[in-house]
Amino acid sequence: MLFLIDDINFFDLEHQYAIASLYEGYIQDMEISVTSARDFFTPREIKNTMLKMLKPQQNQTFFDPACGTGGMLIEAYEYIKSHHGQKASQSMLLFGQALDSTGALISAINMASIGKPVEHIYHGDMLQGYPDHFPKGFDYVLANPPFGIIKDEQARKNPFFKTLYYEPLLLQSFIDAISEEGGTSSVIVSITTLTRDIAAFVDVRERLLTECDLLMVIVLPPGVFAPHTDVRTSILFFRKPGPTRETFYYNACPSEESLKYEHPLLDQYLSQAVEACGKWQQYRISGKGRPESIENSWIETFNNETFRENKYRLGTHCSYVPMEEPLLPEAPIDILLEYNHRFYHTVDNLSLPVELTSQLLKYSQEFHQQLSAFHKDIE
């Protein structure tokens, strides 16, 4: 066994992929899962891409609200260590939250191995907020959260939405978690989060575009999370304060080739994405050299009225054809709230007398309360 380990070249990409595959299988065998949501290993290439785009500085706070076994936090630690030195990595503050108890335990062990406080790893549901001893606003939030349908009792406890979908609930939690003074987030979401018309998705996209500055979106290749899911995903980069003015999109796999995480081309495509987005970041800083002719990219200009009419859909000028995703069945509460959502925005856009508008909006709010009570009763 020792001779076999001695033959491993930890700096060789093929050996790294083999180790990653072994680790992935080990985690899968442990059956670490998050209730009815889908939770899985994040390829190192993707974590590195997220950090390269954020370019985090020293003496900052980092938070992964869906930390699993702590891999994202470890990568953040290694990034600061390699770019700012050992002393800077020791002074950085890492926080994580995991719904699964086994994942939280492994994450705490990982934190202890690099000299970080284990009490900064919390076993709990992000939808219910994080502990009082955590900072009220983080400098960086990084996450590859679960997606899918959650249990009704979890959704009911959320003060913002009544929905059975994880994505909008978690995304609005990430928006709340970053600091109001320049807090930045990099999170992975399904492509349909950017376009789905259900009220909860529309509302969270409105918050994202009006309260935050959505800087960049990297569309990831198909298959990067196979065999767990073939759902197409993207990485969002946003910061506070908002609103969004322009967003740079980059398609990291124009050939639409399915690239599982150990595929050697994945690192190449993501490196090209980092280079392209780096030019956009330079333009945002200097105001010079607007990168409008970069292959596989496009720029979306935000106009509140136009986006509002279009339900704040993002990436509508995508040059790729998304993979078909089997839509999750809509819960009755989602369907009813969608109609109420449309009614609310229709009334809000009409040029009606103030008294009549106020009365109609009052009816809308009462209807929302009755729906919630009805939903609770029928369960």
From TrEMBL:
Top EC class of this enzyme: transferase
- List its EC numbers: 2.1.1.72
What this protein catalyses is: a 2'-deoxyadenosine in DNA + S-adenosyl-L-methionine = an N(6)-methyl-2'-deoxyadenosine in DNA + S-adenosyl-L-homocysteine + H(+)
Q: Where is the DNA methylase adenine-specific domain?
A: 20-316
Task: State the Gene Ontology BP annotations.
Answer: DNA restriction-modification system; methylation
The UniProt keyword set, sorted, is: Methyltransferase, Restriction system, S-adenosyl-L-methionine, Transferase
Instruction: Give the matching InterPro entries.
Output: DNA_Adenine_Mtase, DNA_methylase_A-5, DNA_methylase_N6_adenine_CS, SAM-dependent_MTases_sf
- Residue runs in coiled coils: none
One Pfam family, please name it: N6_Mtase
User: Its domain of life?
Assistant: Bacteria
Molecular function (GO) terms for this protein are:
DNA binding; N-methyltransferase activity; site-specific DNA-methyltransferase (adenine-specific) activity
Protein name from the UniProt record: site-specific DNA-methyltransferase (adenine-specific)
Naturally occurring in which organism (per UniProt): Dictyobacter vulcani
Taxonomic path? Bacteria, Bacillati, Chloroflexota, Ktedonobacteria, Ktedonobacterales
